[in-house]
């Protein structure tokens, strides 16, 4: 375990961070479903503001955790591991916020030919983040499921990559003009980054787990 029992307040704050971060991804899924079924409209803008607000709350909690950690009896190496894991983890809700904001600002309309695959990629991204949070919880406690969860994250990241390539091929073989093809590709790649960020968190968790058991 990274934490002693007297660090219960810190553990609770970490759980609060995990919860709000997942809420960002929950709202991201809803927003993406809405924009694919409708368009970039006023309701989507409201959803975007909610996502940004929750993401900002997650940032605030992460900073609280960083301050708390320097006042707790953690070994410097353990402190460094946890801070780096948090920094990498924070890129996931940041990316979800970034995708929605990009679509709002650009008024992006996803092409019908890729909507089903984008929906699947969004769902894979959400599932992967859920497993990433579970892996983080596991690593910070007993580390009993880290290998199993790492495999699930890897499998989803690979599935996400395949979907990205499939959609990009679909877009560039379509009759869209080049500018629109590039807009569609940008959206696909930006959504795909969520799984990529999850994989980077997983890699860092594995390293931290190895260090604890050697």
What is the overall shape? Answer: globular
CATH architecture label: Up-down Bundle
Distance between the termini: 13 Å
What is the CATH class name? Mainly Alpha
- Helix and strand composition category: mainly alpha
Oligomer: single chain
Radius of gyration, CA atoms, in whole angstroms: 19 Å
Helical proportion?
Answer: over 70%
Main sheet overview: none
**Total beta strand runs:** 0
The ordered H/E elements are: HHHHHHH
Q: What number of structural domains do the residues give?
A: 1
Structure description:
- With 214 residues, the chain is mainly α.
- The chain has one domain: Up-down Bundle (Methane Monooxygenase Hydroxylase, Chain G, domain 1).
- 82% of the residues lie in helices and 0% in strands.
- It has helices spanning 8-37, 42-69, 76-89, 91-106, 115-140, 146-172, 178-212.
- α1 (8-37) packs parallel to α4, α3 runs antiparallel to α7 and α5 packs antiparallel against α6.
- The protein is globular and about 60 Å long.
- The mean pLDDT is 91.
Q: Could you give a quick summary of the protein structure above?
A:
The protein has 214 residues and is an all-alpha fold.
Q: Which helices and strands occur, and which strands form pairs?
A:
Layout: H1 8-37, H2 42-69, H3 76-89, H4 91-106, H5 115-140, H6 146-172, H7 178-212
Brief descriptors of the model:
globular; Methane Monooxygenase Hydroxylase, Chain G, domain 1; 214 residues
């Amino acid at each position: 375990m990274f934490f002693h029992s007297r660090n219960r307040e810190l553990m609770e704050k970490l759980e609060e961070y995990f919860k709000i971060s997942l809420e960002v991804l929950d709202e991201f899924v809803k927003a993406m479903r809405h924009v694919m079924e409708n368009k970039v409209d006023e309701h989507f803008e409201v959803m975007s503001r909610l996502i940004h607000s929750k993401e900002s709350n997650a940032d605030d909690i992460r900073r609280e955790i960083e301050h708390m950690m320097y006042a707790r009896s953690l070994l410097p190496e353990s402190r460094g591991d946890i801070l780096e894991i948090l920094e990498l983890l924070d890129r996931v809700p940041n990316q979800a916020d970034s995708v929605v904001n990009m679509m709002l600002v650009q008024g992006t309309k996803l092409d019908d030919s890729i909507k089903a695959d984008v929906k699947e990629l969004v769902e894979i991204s959400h599932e992967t983040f859920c497993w990433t949070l579970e892996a983080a919880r596991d690593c910070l406690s007993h580390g009993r499921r880290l290998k199993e969860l790492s495999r699930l994250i890897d499998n989803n990241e690979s599935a996400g990559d395949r979907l990205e390539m499939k959609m990009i091929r679909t877009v560039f073989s379509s009759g869209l003009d080049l500018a629109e093809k590039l807009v569609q590709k940008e959206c696909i790649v930006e959504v795909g980054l969520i799984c990529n960020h999850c994989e980077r968190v997983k890699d860092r968790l594995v390293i931290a787990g190895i260090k604890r058991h050697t």
